Every structure is written in C-alpha cells, then in structure tokens.
Amino acid sequence: MQYMLGVDIGTFETKAVLVDQNGAIIEQAQKSHKMLVPEPGWAEHRPNEDWWGDFCYVTQSITSHSSVDASKIVAVACSAIGPCMLPVDRNGEALMNGVLYGVDTRAQLEIDELNSEIGEDRILEMGGNALTTQSVGPKILWLKKNRPEIYKNTHKILTSTSFLVHKLTGEFVIDHYTAANFTPLYDLHTQTWSTALTKDLIALEKLPELRWSSDIVGRITKAAAQKTGLPEGIPVTAGTIDAAAEAISVGVSESGDTMCMYGSTIFMISLTDQRVEDPRLWYAPWLFPGQHASMAGLATSGTLTHWFREHFAKDLNLDSSFGELSEEAKQSVPGSNGIVFLPYFSGERTPIHDPDAKGLIFGLRVDHTRGDVYRGLIEGIAFGTRHVVDTFVECSTQTNRLFAVGGGTKNELWIQTTSDITGLDQIVREKTVGASYGDAFLAALSVGIVGMQYSIDQNLTRINAAPTSLKQKVYFNLQKSIIELEYKPGELLKKQELCKEFGISRTPLSEAIALLMQDGLVEVVPQAGTYVARLSMDDLHEGAFIREALEIAAIKLLAGIITEPQLVKLRRNLRLQRVFIDDEDFQGFYALDAQFHAMLLDFTGFDKLSRVADSAWINVNRVRRLLMPIAGRVEETYQEHVEIYGTLERGEPTKASNALEKHLRKLMTYISPLEKSHPEYFT
Fold first, then answer.
1. Crossing angle, helix 564-574 and helix 594-604, to 10 degrees?
2. Whose CA is closest to 637, among 667, 668, 593?
3. 78 backbone dihedrals φ, ψ, rounded to 5°
4. CA distances from 264 to 35, 309, 325, 516 (A)
5. Measured CA angle at 104 (ends 99, 105), to 5 deg
C-alpha cells in the first residue's frame, strides 16, 4: 500500500491528512494559530511560526501517531491561504510577516497609483484581473514605498505555499493558479511573468519559477526531514492556494462545477471552458493546463461567527458554542425578526471590491434576542454569497453542480440558509476534511497513482442541501401578479396600507431593504433611518423625494414586482458608478449615472408624474435629467435643492415646476460640458 501526505495552512488552523491509495484517511493532525491585525486593514501571519512551524508540528504528529511506516509515503503536497506577499532573503528566510490575501487592504493607494499609471483596461486585458486587495502587485509596491530596506534586501517575493515548498526542497517555485493573482506581473496569454505593464515594480528574477500544481518540483532535503519527521527524498509538488485544493477534494473537475468554501471567508471557484474577464471577479488558469477558473470571495464569513462568539457568547462553552448559537438562531424566523446584517466588517472583496465598506446591524429592537442577531449574521453572509452567484450568472458562468466545502458545512443552519437565499442545491461530500485531502489527491496524481476522476468516484455525497420553498417565499416573496403603483408627491406614502394590499406582514421593509442592500442598491443613513442610493450616499440630499422612492422600491421588491432581470440590469448600470468633475469650482461634485435614476423612477412609479395635473408637472424625462444635478451637493445651489424638496413635500406642483425649470437652466450650464465629455453617463 502506498500513502500520500497533504498539508494545508488556513487562516486560523493548519491541517494534515495521511491518505492511502484508495482514498481512505489513515491519520489526521491539526494545529491552531491566529491572524495578526497590527493595524486596521492589515492581516498577517508569522511565516516561521504559523506556516513552517505548524507544518512541522502536524507532520511530526502524523508520523509519530500513525501505524504507517513513513518510508511508504510516496509524495507530499501542500496548500495555504493566498495569494500572500512575503519577501525573503537568499536563504529563503522571511524578512517580515507574511501579508495575507484580500482581507489585507493596506495597498489601496498603490492600487489607485498603478491603475492611474497603467490603465485599468490594459491591466484587465493582460492579466485577466482588475487590481483589487487580492492582488499581490500593489502590495509589492507598498513594500517598495514603505519598507525600502526590506525591499532592497529581497531576493524573492514568495507566497505562503512557495515558502513551504522552499523549506522542504530548497526550490523557489509557484503554481500558475496562484501566480495569476500577482497582477500586473502575470501575462495570462503567455502564462509567463512580464514587465510589459510596469518595469519599476520588481525585477522578474525576484519572482519564483512558474509550475503547474501537480508538478513534482523537488524532494525533501535532509534539513527538512529532520524538522518534519518525514524521510529525506520524498517528492514534493508545487502546491497551490487552499481554496483550489479544497475544490479538488470534493471533485470539482469539469466546466460548470462550482465550489463554495465555507471558511474564515466564503470563497467560490467555478470552472469554465473559456476565460471569463470581468473586473468584479478574479481569473486564473486552473491547476492543470487548458482549464480556466473564475473566482470570488467575501471579506468576512466564518471570521464573523468567531467575532460574534468572542464578544457576545462568552457565557457559552467554547467547544459547543457554535452549536448552541445555531440552536438559538433556529428559534428565530427567516428574516431574523426584521434584523438586517451587512457582513462588510473588513470591507468587501467580490463583487464590489470596496475596502471602505462597513458592517452594519440594522433594525434592532428591545425584544430581539441573541438568536435573532446570530441568524441575521448568517443571513447577511448568505446574501453576500447570493451577490456573487448573481455576478456569475451575469458573466454567463454556468453552475451545473455546486459543492459546499469547509468547516462551515458542519453548520446546518448556514448551509440551508444559503440554499434558501441563493435558490441553489448544494452537494456536501462525505469526506469534508478540506484542502489537505485535496493536497493528498494532488500528491497521488503527481506520481501517477490516481487519475482525475478518482476524487469524484471515491468521495461520496453525504447530503444534498436543497432550497426550502416556504423559506424562499419568505426571503423573496415573489408574486406573479404585477400591480402598478402611483405615488403623488405631497402625500406621505401609506406604507402599511400598501403592505396590506400586497399581503406583506410584520416589519414589511426589512427583508426587502436587506435584498436591496445586498444587491448594492441601498445603504442606510443613520439619521432617521433614511435609505439612499449606495453610490451617491455622500451626494444625495436626504429628502423625502429619494427616500420615499426607495421605500416604494423596497416594498415592490418584497412583493415580487421588481423582477430578477430588472435587478440584474440595474446592477449593471450601477457599475458605471460616478465621474469626478476636475474643476476647481466644483471639487467634490459627482455626476451620477442617469440610467440608474431613470430605472429607479420606472420601478417606483414616478413615471406617473407626467400624468398628474396635466401640464402642471414637468415631463418625466426632464425629471430624470434633473435628478442628477439635484443629487450633486453643489454648495451654491444647496439651499435651492432644499426649497424644491420642500415645495414637492407640501404638494405644490405648479410652484415646484417653475422652481425646477429655473434650476434646470442654471444647473445645465454646469452639466453640459460633462455631457459632452462623458456621454455614456447620460440617457
């Protein structure tokens, strides 16, 4: 019998597994470590202690506790969190702590600098990825600018897996899947390192050699054997990022297969026949030549459950705390009794790529319980997952099979809630050891013991989590009937009567606002619970005109009147975002996407404005155009905005019309130059 060893270094834990050639797990070991946050937005590991130290601990544990003779281990493969940025000297010794993947947001200024210097389109075209907090290139630039002495003494820039492979073999290598995250240094067309976009970032000889994940890149050295307890000479593969190894562990192998990893963060990988280039997602060559992968990841997921436990469940036993919290959450109801939870506690990665996004617990009342809040947390993460799924759909990435993996699969509530909110079935495999099991498979593949179909055939399905129709109805409340609403400015929206008409009961806005928030359409302004469009949060006047529009939109969404295709189109328009007017007289003035406002008007019934009081109201198209300059907070006309809103609220349409006409002529002198220079922002 032959055996393979797989080792994975996670954000909070290291796991090792010894597997025989039939896929049976012979021995396991694990060790915990912490993620360091020395400054807000930073995330680090200690390479020698958390990566190499953990690796040696678990391999020694495996060899000392297993009845298998270590000499029968024929291959070793490892994976780790990534992509990371670690400068090392000529001996491969770390010069600083390892800078972690996208949860570390320190290089935002460098992202902006590289985008400005190179151009976002050129970066996306060559590397297949936009620059985000996941990218290693900006973090290398951060190193160069902020730690010049370390940068000067750097022999190689490694990632976590590269560091481990060097410790084992003495070789400096990296797999293509990980290297694709070194934007803008990786050319996806030639699958080589390149300085075509930036020659000053770092010399190419300071980057590791490119290999495929199942390539044997070296053998365990004598020094490594003494540290790990493994025999000298065992073949070692190039390794990969933990999420990719996790996908392999459950049988993700063909186009249409998608993995959702429930770990410290949600991470999703979808295999495709062709490259998918979209700035909202990440791209990489898959682990084997000829295959492609689209990836996405939230910034916080399991991390949030740990945060909640540490701060709000100190009374619970540590070993059973998550189970007890889940039981408390099950006593709540779908929708968490009106609590809205935004999981942006470390900014957000895909698909919004906003390191400044903030977490939110909204709608708290004195009758809420800890279980309500914990369920809201789970639902918030699930809505974030749905946002990713929607983005895959928009990019024509097909999901034929969705495999759920990771420690979070033990949380029945989390798995089921995700299925209910995304509307997708999830397959949970019998062996849920995780990435280390995938590493063992890659090790077996590297020495020819197994073929690609092995993991699918041997790793049987344990459960299939399907959406619950009743809960889906609660979450989406989709109704077939289309009811037109008519809103007359000057009248307060009678939301409760409207909800009664639609058959919506109890905290009628909470679930709808949650959906709008998770789709990136709405944020909450603390004052008076005002809802405003997310991209214009700092610029929109917080008046009833916009607030009432969004509240109606929320009710219509809850009632199923706004359809999914409409939301997809709306999100696409939102991606146009906003344009800064580079003029000293208008610093801070932003032009908002007019199409977004036009669609918002359509959804909320403001098209009825042109029919109210005959000619007393200005034409709806003019209202649409007006919304853009009115939304801008131009100081010299701000008081006019307030007066116009007040006129509308008092129900004086003729006076409002005259004021708007006058205001239009004035503001269009500001807007006309922008319309000529940026026609794409105008209908």
1. 150
2. 667
3. -135, 160
4. 11, 14, 17, 25
5. 125
**Gap between the Cα atoms of 316 and 321, Å rounded:** 5
Q: Report the C-alpha gap between 284 and 267 in whole angstroms.
A: 14
Query: Residue 437 and residue 612: Cα distance in Å, rounded?
Result: 66
Q: What angle do CA 310, 518, 630 make, to 5 degrees?
A: 125
Rg of the chain on CA atoms, in Å: 27
pLDDT of residue 612: 27
Strands, E assignment, 473-592: 522-525, 530-533, 578-580, 590-592
- Here the tokens at position 434 are 């995780």
Q: H or E stretch including 657?
A: helix 653-677
The answer to whether 447 and 235 are in contact (CB under 8 A) is: yes
Inter-residue contact 248 to 441 (CB < 8 Å):
yes
Residue 518's pLDDT band (cuts 50, 70, 90): low
**Each residue of 31-57: pLDDT tens digit?**
999 999 999 889 999 999 999 999 999
Q: Cα(408)–Cα(418) distance, rounded to whole angstroms?
A: 11
Report DSSP state, residue 281: S
And the tokens for 462? 């344990």
Residue with token string 């099991």 = 437
Angle made by CA atoms 452, 455, 458, in degrees to the nearest 5: 130
DSSP string covering 574-637: HTT-EEE---GGGTT-EEE-HHHHHHHHHHHTGGGGGGTTGGGSPPHHHHHHHHHHHHS--GGG
CB 321 within 8 Å of CB 492: no
The amino acid occupying position 191 is Q
User: Of residues 667 and 344, which shows the higher confidence score?
Assistant: 344
pLDDT 10s digits, 169-200: 999 999 999 999 999 999 999 999 999 999 89
Tokens describing residue 298: 């939230």
Which of the pair, 290 or 238, is modelled with greater confidence? 238
d(CA 310, CA 47): 26
DSSP letter, residue 208: P
pLDDT value at residue 339: 82
CA 490/CA 443 separation, integer angstroms: 70
Do you know the residue count of the chain?
Answer: 683
Question: Roughly how many angstroms between the first and final C-alpha of the chain, as a whole number?
Answer: 69
The count of other CB atoms within 10 Å of the CB of residue 586 is 17
Residue 429, CB half-sphere, CA atoms under 13 Å: how many?
A: 30
Lowest mean pLDDT among 214-223, 279-288, 439-448, 456-465: 456-465
d(CA 132, CA 180): 13
Do 519 and 391 touch, CB atoms closer than 8 A? no
DSSP code of residue 90 = T
Q: How far is CA 276 from CA 183, 197, 246, 279, 291, in A?
A: 16, 21, 21, 10, 12
Q: What is the pLDDT of residue 249?
A: 87
* Closest residue by Cα to residue 595 from 615, 574, 613: 574
Q: What is the pLDDT of residues 551-574, one digit of tens each?
A: 444 444 444 444 445 544 444 433
- Give me the amino acid identity at 476: F
The candidate with the shortest Cα–Cα distance to 8, out of 94, 65, 57, 81, is: 81
Contact assessment for residue 574 and residue 597, using Cβ atoms and an 8 Å cutoff: no
| Reported pTM | 0.64
Name the residue with higher pLDDT: 339 or 53: 53
- Would you state the structure tokens that stand for residue 525, as one six-digit string? 């302004």
Torsional class of 575: left (φ above 0), alpha (ψ -120 to 50), beta (otherwise): alpha
Dihedral of CA 583/589/594/595: which sign? positive
Query: Does the pLDDT of residue 217 top 80, yes or no?
Result: yes
